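ARCHIVE ENTRY
Sequence with per-residue tokens
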Amino acid sequence: MQESRVVLITGGSKGIGRVIAEYFRDAGYRVAATHRTGSVPEGVLGVVCDVTDQAQVDAAFTTVEAELGPVEVLIANAGVTKDTLVARMSDDDWNSVIDTNLTGTFRVVRRAARPMTRGRFGRIILVSSVVGLLGSPGQMNYAASKAALIGMARSLTRELGSRNITCNVVAPGFIDTDMTAVLPAATIDGYKARIPAGRLGDSADVAAAALFLAGDGAGYISGAVVPVDGGLGMGH
């Protein structure tokens, strides 16, 4: 049964990742989530892991495999931002975002791929962003890292598709999280004016898309970009 499959979510202690973990747990999956600080939801196996460290990634997978079994669904959600205009962007601003958002995703995908190939089943879901499609001033590093996930997913689809492994991208728009909660009301209103749905999204909107893509009903969907943005990125 798909509901008993093992799911690993990176960055599962807060925001979208935490809600995704709750959604899969409530749907009956066996769920593990990585975190650097904080805690994961009740009923979820928490594993301390920094995705910029391959040794920690390997150790996290080993723990999940020992406690729950091989990872059958991987949701690469861990990400950071270091926003600033390009003229002020330091090498560290660039490298740290790329290392977490892009190379960190590569590290967890690489570790998951071999057991999925042996098991002839896998669902890989990469959490990107509408910013990776539209661009955003002050977020060149973040946008580049998120856009690159599309090429990664489509290459993985071509490489692993014959083994019953899919790889898709979820691209959230402006989601109501702790990050947006601190923005001025005028900024939020400006976002809403650009979004055809007329509202910010909720983490549950993203979690529902991930849950669908992990299920048997999405077995013939791969290499797709699924926008969860209220229509903001149409045409991209």
